[in-house]
Design goal:
single chain, 706 residues, 9-stranded mixed beta sheet, 9 helices
């Protein structure tokens, strides 16, 4: 595997003063690497925006040199007993399991192994048994996506027997016997490994597929077995009178087992139908690197976006992290909600349209050079597939995330900056600095853990460009903030869309089930719509009875290529003139560094059937007159009809809105993911910039905004 010469990650994405953050680095150089702290102002490498803008923070962290070392990582999920099992036999020993292969004819894959005894599948698709006493292969080629049951027995009298049958087609069975010299009584200790085996002290031969019911029998008695429906939300599976199995690299749980018959879709109700685990050779969620340097956040450090920049031998990396104010303390009137859950879910998204030709612009702009499409071994995003074609449903930031970097370009062939997520959100951050508007930062993590207390008291809380992924806790906190008098500003599109779950033991791991419909990179299989982490139904928030319109008045309606369009003012109610103060034109945002327009790529609109009766004022709209966009699946019924009952031309639009709720709360929503890309245009002097100044002045006061 080709490795990046200098790269790192941190153990946290967000920290408060007094807390420590650790950085883990892998450097292939023989020279020491340097580490310096910067504050990130603009993460857009486009020279037309001024390029990357960062401020050195030597007064908080003096630059240091650190000894280079290359740190390795090991993809592939498996399970292993937490301690060895004692095996004492005078007559026979057997290994058995049920399995469901999903990627054959690639390499040898091990189903289960105990010391030097193993059951594997050869790269030609045959079952193979190996042991110190002898080995054999079965003559029948296995088929992908079929359930099998295999049992291999060594009789000490001198016979190896391996039998296999189709679980759904029991008539498809085969059996092979081989005579061997008599075996002496067995007495040893060894760990059982599922879905891999140890080869020269390394875990290798990872299995791609599902395994259930691994069992060890000695002298015809079961001495160890594991029911994979147990401990579903944990990383350890209790054994039946034997040691626990510990899971590594998070294989997929809450998946259908060999007896699933469609009678139940919720694993909580019939766990025996979900007693399988889906292992993958490319599962990896925590590199487990050792710490190279750490930084304790000073009490007087401003809330903001910071970078630990590392450099060595001509190679560079920048590891971003987000500093929040001390808990219970507010340093500004404006709070920026950073969507770290969305950053994580998209982490290392290898886009299918990536081209090496993008590197020309990357070099010209001095942009971030590494792309997940070229370094897939670093672990892909939940917008990608495993090597066996199944969707990736778990994501974590405990590994280098290439697209969580300043200067990362998502659309390298666009005629704009081509940014998404973290770099795109910096268009808002650079605008705040240009206008000298103080702000604090809070991330999804604090909002999830602390609830509304994390944002309570801020006159304005605003999102960035794409707050797509949320937990129950984050939505509840935002709703309570709004209903208790807060001003919620939603400056993006396709927000509050997917429901995710966090793992109790390791909350840095996120889970997404792409159930039913929605714009999906992949589709969960029927019967696998419930999260393994919390047992709750996954999928769209709309399908969980909490559409985005309930919170922010608009919801996802259409998606297109990375292009933008202007808005046209639609409200002339004198009560709303404050929004358009000092703006003379009806056309708004016919420019921008994201898609060349303020309304683009992913559009949200008002839907009276979903917004719970908010008194919404539509300030401006942008219609897809060129038909460059398509309706999202949850809006469509047939090729002729859609849920709204209106024409497609009418609902393929972005709505910029404002409304108030009881209790004094209010909401401003842009209905577009490219809105913030227009803020820096013309050195931050444009009608979108003026409009947002007017919006913020509603709560902050004009005298506070320069």
């Amino acid at each position: 595997m080709e490795r990046v010469p200098l790269v790192g990650y941190s153990d946290k994405l967000s920290v408060r003063p007094g807390e420590k953050i650790e950085f883990k680095v892998s450097s292939k150089s023989d020279f020491d690497f340097t580490a310096e702290l910067y504050r990130s102002i603009n993460a857009d490498p486009n020279p037309s925006t001024g390029g990357l803008i960062e401020k050195k923070c030597d007064h908080f962290f003096k630059p240091i040199k650190v000894l280079s070392r290359e740190q390795d990582f090991y993809p592939g999920s498996y399970a292993k007993t937490v301690r060895p099992i004692r095996i004492i036999s005078n007559h026979s020993i057997s290994l058995s399991c049920r399995f469901f292969p999903t990627l054959l004819l690639k390499a040898e894959q091990c189903l289960i192994s105990l010391a030097d005894i193993s059951l594997s599948i050869t790269k030609k698709g045959f079952l193979k048994f190996e042991s110190q006493w002898g080995s054999l292969e079965l003559p029948n080629v296995l088929l992908e996506r079929n359930w099998y049951e295999v049992i291999a027995t060594v009789s000490l009298s001198g016979v190896i027997t391996v039998s296999c049958r189709g679980v759904k087609a029991p008539e498809k069975k085969f059996k092979v016997e081989k005579k061997i010299p008599p075996v002496n009584p067995i007495n040893f200790e060894a760990s059982l490994t599922v879905a891999a085996k140890t080869v020269k002290q390394r875990i290798k031969q990872h299995f791609n597929g599902k395994v259930e019911a691994p069992t060890i029998s000695v002298d015809s008695l079961v001495v160890a077995s594991w029911n994979f429906s147990k401990g579903m939300r944990n990383v350890k599976i209790p054994g039946e009178s034997c040691p626990e199995l510990e899971l590594f690299n998070y294989p997929t749980r809450a998946v259908k087992s060999s007896i699933w018959d469609g009678s139940e879709m919720n694993w909580n109700h019939r766990p025996e139908h979900y007693s399988a685990i889906h292992f993958h050779e490319d599962d990896i969620y925590d590199f487990g690197w050792e710490t190279d340097l750490s930084f304790q956040i000073p009490e007087k450090m401003d809330s903001g976006i910071y970078l630990m920049r590392i450099e060595c031998d001509g190679n560079k990396d920048a590891i971003p992290f987000f500093v929040c104010p001390s808990r219970g303390k507010r340093n500004a009137d404006l709070c920026i909600l950073i969507s770290t859950f969305t950053y994580t879910v998209y982490g290392n998204h290898a886009r299918p349209d990536y081209s090496e030709s993008w590197q020309e612009r990357i070099k010209e702009w001095g942009a971030y050079p590494y792309n997940a499409a070229e370094y897939k071994e670093y672990g892909l995003s939940t917008y990608n597939f495993h090597s066996d074609g199944s969707g990736i449903c778990y994501g974590s930031f405990k590994r280098p995330l290439f697209n969580l970097r300043p200067g990362y370009i998502t659309f390298g062939d666009s005629n704009c900056s081509g940014l998404r997520h973290f770099p795109a959100d910096s268009h808002l951050i650079s605008w705040l600095h240009a206008k000298e508007i103080p702000y604090d930062i809070v991330t999804d993590n604090e909002l999830h853990n602390e609830g509304v207390a994390a944002i309570q008291g801020y006159p304005i809380v605003t999102t960035g460009t794409h707050p797509e992924y949320h937990t129950v806790e984050t939505l509840d906190a935002l709703l309570e903030y709004r209903n208790s008098g807060g001003f919620l500003s939603y400056l993006g599109g396709n927000g509050f869309y997917w429901k995710i779950a966090r793992q109790d033991q390791d909350p840095d791991i996120l889970e997404i089930r792409r159930a039913e419909d929605g714009i999906r990179a992949w589709a969960s299989e029927p019967g696998e719509y419930y999260n393994s982490f919390d047992g709750k139904y996954g999928g769209l928030w709309r399908r969980n009875g909490r559409p985005p319109q309930q919170l922010v008045g608009v919801g996802f309606t259409a998606q297109g290529t990375f292009i933008g369009m202007p808005y046209k003012r639609s409200s002339y109610d004198p009560a709303m003139d404050w929004v358009f103060e000092s703006i003379e034109t009806k056309i708004l945002g016919d420019f921008g560094f994201s898609g060349n327009g303020a309304a683009g790529f992913e559009l949200d609109r008002v839907d009276p059937f979903l917004d719970e009766g908010h008194d919404i004022e539509i300030l401006a709209q942008s219609y897809d007159t060129e038909r460059d966009f398509m309706l999202v699946p949850e809006e469509q019924l047939t090729h002729l009809t859609n849920i709204s009952g209106h024409s497609e031309d009418y609902i393929r639009r972005a709505d910029m809105i404002y409304f108030e709720v009881e209790g004094g709360g209010s909401v401003f929503s842009t209905g577009s993911i490219t809105f913030c890309g227009s803020l820096p245009w013309n050195n931050f002097d444009n009608n979108i910039s003026k409009l947002l100044l007017n919006i913020f002045a509603k709560r902050l006061g004009p005298f506070k905004i320069k």
